[in-house]
Design goal:
- Pfam families: NUDIX.
- InterPro entries: NUDIX_hydrolase-like_dom_sf, NUDIX_hydrolase_CS, NUDIX_hydrolase_dom, Nudix_hydrolase_domain.
- GO terms for molecular function: bis(5'-nucleosyl)-tetraphosphatase (asymmetrical) activity.
- Residues 19-49 are annotated as: Disordered.
- It is a single chain.
- By secondary structure, this protein is an alpha+beta fold.
- It has a single domain (4-13, 49-188), classed as Nucleoside Triphosphate Pyrophosphohydrolase, CATH 3.90.79.10.
- The protein is built from 4 helices and 9 strands.
- It has helices spanning 25-33, 83-95, 167-173, 179-185, and strands at 4-13, 50-57, 70-71, 74-76, 109-115, 121-128, 141-145, 153-157, 159-166.
- The strands form 2 sheets. Strands 1, 2, 3, 4, 5, 6 and 9 form a 7-stranded mixed β-sheet that branches.
- It starts with a strand and ends in a 5-residue tail after the last helix.
């Protein structure tokens, strides 16, 4: 029997940008061309475009990776456990947060079941959460032998950070097996 996992896709529409009433042309140009670290900023996503809240996997293997190193909060569940209950539990364990609830008492949206290359089946749910913007997360940890076969064990977080991510960037960041979750979400919320 294949392992089963359940997760929650948290999404929102990009909020409208806040513009100060009186900015000089110089201030606007400086704000859009460089970041505090001296790099060039990406253009912000268009107002109203879809964003998903995804988490970067923790531990030394993932520390310097961005592409295909992010995931929705999810985890394994037993055959006698309700998949939605498991998705909400895993969200809490991986982020230290209470999962956002659907507005108006609506049910969570079931996106479906998705078979991963490993054979694992992920049952995914979605919730729109326009006001969800936690300042930080506190993930659970697990023991990891690092470097491999060294005999040394580290406690590492399952995820080390999470953030709102525009859909095009999320497609680059998410592990490849989770891209079908975005494909299932988008037609429902064009």
């Amino acid at each position: 029997m294949a392992e089963r996992s359940a997760g929650l896709v948290v999404w929102r529409r990009t909020p409208s940008p806040r513009v100060a009433p009186a900015q000089s042309d110089v201030a606007v140009q400086e704000a859009s061309s460089s970041s505090p670290s001296g790099g060039t900023r990406e253009d912000p996503p268009a107002s109203g475009s879809l964003e998903v809240w995804i988490a970067h996997m923790g531990g030394p293997f993932w520390a310097r990776k961005e592409s295909r190193a992010w995931s929705i909060p999810k985890g394994l569940y037993s055959p006698d456990e309700d998949p939605l209950a498991a998705a909400l539990r895993e969200f809490g364990e991986e982020t230290g947060l209470v999962a956002p609830r659907p507005a108006g008492g609506e049910p969570y949206e079931e996106l479906g079941e998705f078979r991963q290359r490993s054979g694992k089946i992920v049952t995914a749910f979605a919730v729109e959460a326009p006001d969800f913007d936690p300042p930080s997360i506190t993930s659970n940890t697990f023991p990891l032998e690092w470097p491999p076969r060294s005999g040394r064990t580290l406690e590492v977080p399952e995820v080390d950070r999470a953030e709102w991510t525009p859909l095009p960037l999320a497609r680059e960041r998410l592990v490849a097996g989770q891209l079908p979750l975005l494909d299932a979400l988008l037609p429902r919320h064009p």
